[in-house]
Write a structure and sequence with these properties.
Oligomer: single chain
Helix content: 25-40%
Structural class: alpha+beta
Number of helices: 8
Shape: flat
Length: about 325
């Protein structure tokens, strides 16, 4: 755009001739305030030019250094909390913060949108728009239970920090449905990450055991087969619809094939439920692996955040000296 302007606009051509004449006397010792080629590169590639400026990275250090320090202290706090809260069996768990390790299960399953895995819960994080400027978080959950051999407890995984490796990809046609629900097209999708909890997967949970506010079993006269359960779990009929939206070739007259388990094994209106607290972590790694991950994060962020901030301040002061603002 910049080169087109200087090449064809009459006023720019007149100005360009004077700039060229001014630049031609550079060898005679007359100072040149700006380089024409550098100016063109700035106009044509402003982002690339900005990323090569030391002052830009100095400012970024001052802005994000304190945030890194905050993340480090938070990781350290969570690590200490995990160590201080004793792991409990489900049968012996008391109301309040608990640590539980067990296998996930449920009466029926969903299909994860990207990997097409049988799962009880999925969270899809999609970046859409120019350079992924907009973030969409789409999640769906069937009734989730954790069992450790001593009993089962219902869990609401919404709002949890998912300490697990995501599955990435944009090849799924289901992403088009997700983007459309938020006013975007399939072509607007830049990237997508999928987290899911699968049936029979061993998971570690740090959360809060509470009395279940949805334990009332009174039948709602307005309820339908699509009405959600408790905190927002999809019904079996809605899970069937979700499965068919992923597998569009399924026979509408036949069952979709979702996992069927005797309803007697699961109490969909239990007296207590495991849900979001402060903090709320779900991981398919062991407790030791979670603590190890938090340990190195706390060290890196707590020491790296201030170091980056100080380097940023030093860089800004050096530029102020060069500009003559500071002595």
């Amino acid at each position: 755009m910049g080169l087109w302007f200087f090449s064809f606009h009459p006023a720019a051509k007149f100005l360009g001739s004077h700039i060229s004449a001014f630049l031609s006397v550079k060898g005679a010792g007359i100072p040149v305030p700006h380089d024409y080629d550098s100016l063109s590169r700035i106009i044509d590639h402003p982002v690339a030019w900005l990323l090569t400026r030391p002052l830009f990275w100095a400012v970024m250090g001052v802005v994000f250094g304190p945030y890194g320090f905050f993340l480090g202290w938070r990781a350290l706090k969570i690590k200490r909390l995990i160590r201080n809260i004793p792991r409990s069996t489900i049968r012996a768990a008391a109301l309040g913060p608990v640590e539980i390790v067990g296998k996930a299960s449920g009466p029926y399953t969903l299909v994860s949108p990207i990997a097409n895995n049988e799962c009880l819960y999925y969270r899809l994080v999609v970046l859409v728009g120019e350079r992924g400027a907009h973030k969409i978080v789409d999640e769906m959950c069937a009734p989730v239970f954790i069992g450790d051999g001593t009993g089962k407890v219902m869990m609401d995984p919404r709002g949890a920090e998912l300490e697990m490796d995501p599955y990435e990809g944009t090849h799924s046609d289901y992403l088009g449905h997700v983007a459309a629900r938020h006013g975007f097209s399939r072509g607007d999708v830049v990237s997508a990450q999928e987290f899911c909890i699968r049936a029979d997967e061993t998971i570690f949970v740090l959360g809060t055991l509470r009395e279940n506010p949805w334990a009332d079993k009174n039948v709602d006269v307005h309820a339908t087969t699509l009405s959600r359960i408790g905190p927002g779990f999809v019904s079996e009929a809605e899970a069937d619809i979700q499965r068919r939206s992923v597998y569009e070739y399924l026979d509408p007259a036949a069952p979709s094939g979702c996992l069927q388990v005797s309803a007697a094994e699961f109490d969909l209106h239990p007296p207590v439920i495991l849900m979001k607290g402060s903090p709320f972590i779900i991981s398919n790694r062991s407790q030791r692996e979670v603590i190890s991950d938090l340990s190195w994060k706390s060290v890196v962020y707590i020491w790296g955040g201030p170091a980056v901030t100080l380097l940023g301040v030093w860089g800004i002061l050096k530029h102020l000296q060069l500009w003559g603002v500071l002595p």
